[in-house]
Each structure stands twice: as C-alpha cells, then as structure tokens.
C-alpha cells in the first residue's frame, strides 16, 4: 500500500496533550498559513458573516483574523492549554462554560461572542451541539487524525457543513515509508473517496 507503515499508527489524545505541554508544536504557524490568504476568496465565495469551523484548531491565529473580518469562528481542540493560549496571546477576554451534552467538555467564548472554542474530542461534537458551517479551514486536522479514524472524521465533517459550504483542506505530500507521521500522508484518491 502507498501509505506504508502509517496505516496502523495511532497517536493518543495523551500524546497530543503532551506535545502542547512540552511546547512541541512545530505545526503551529505564528504568522498564519499563506494558503488561507491565497485561497480566502474560495473559502468566502463572495459571502460575508459566515460561520467557519476550525477542526483541531490549536491556537491558530487565523481564527482571530477571520473573526476580525466579521465571521463567526468555531473551533475544537483537545488541549485546554492551546485554547487558553489563543485567547491570552491575542489579549481577548473570554468566558468558559461546560458543554452539557459532552461530559467534561468546556466551551471558551470570546466576550465579543464571535469566537467559540470547544475543548473536547472532535468526535464528541455533532451539528446538534455546534450547528452547521458555511466554511471549514482544515489546515492540519485530516493529516493529524489517525488513519483508522479518517472515515469517521470525514463523515463528521460532511455532517457539519451546509449544502453550499466551502472546505479548504491542506495536506502534505511525502514518502510515507520514510516518516511515521503525523502529519500523515493522505493520498488524493483517499481524499476523493472520503469527501466525494
């Protein structure tokens, strides 16, 4: 198979939390991702005031950037530290409340109300909890999801988007036999079979 030894690889929630605790977050981009700036028109498609979803958001600076443009941003991240870092690094006041439908989950919302970050497993979310989205910025989520969970992830994403939504997906291309991931290699053929 062209995914090499990665097919069976599993990264646990604890490993992700440890990456944040240790500051081992080479995947975080301080300046924001150039591909979002390049393809912003594709994401927005001439529309304003969109609801935009950031799966496995970390402390992505693009969340504030899009919120400042008048969009409503919702993210999900397993690391509470990442979520709190996002608000403190942008000097954004926020409130924190439990998510009644998800045991142990918290939602952190900017006082302005246009940024809501859920701290929980992405698989605990559903459209009944977070609603539906006009756009998704998947900068490092699909490539971070364990290969065995990709179908589950894609099904959730498809369930969270409106019919006329835009989905920007960034993947990485490399020889999967030389790197165990994450980021995982996701061949284009698999992306097509996952998302149609």
From TrEMBL:
Gene Ontology CC: cytoplasm
UniProt keyword terms in alphabetical order: Cytoplasm, Methyltransferase, S-adenosyl-L-methionine, Transferase
Reactions performed catalytically: S-adenosyl-L-methionine + a thiopurine = S-adenosyl-L-homocysteine + a thiopurine S-methylether
Positions contributing to S-adenosyl-L-methionine binding: 16-27, 56, 77, 121-122, 139
GO MF, one annotated term: thiopurine S-methyltransferase activity
PROSITE patterns: SAM_MT_TPMT
Subcellular location: Cytoplasm
Pfam families for this protein: TPMT (PF05724)
PANTHER family, per database record: THIOPURINE S-METHYLTRANSFERASE
The protein's name in its UniProt record: thiopurine S-methyltransferase
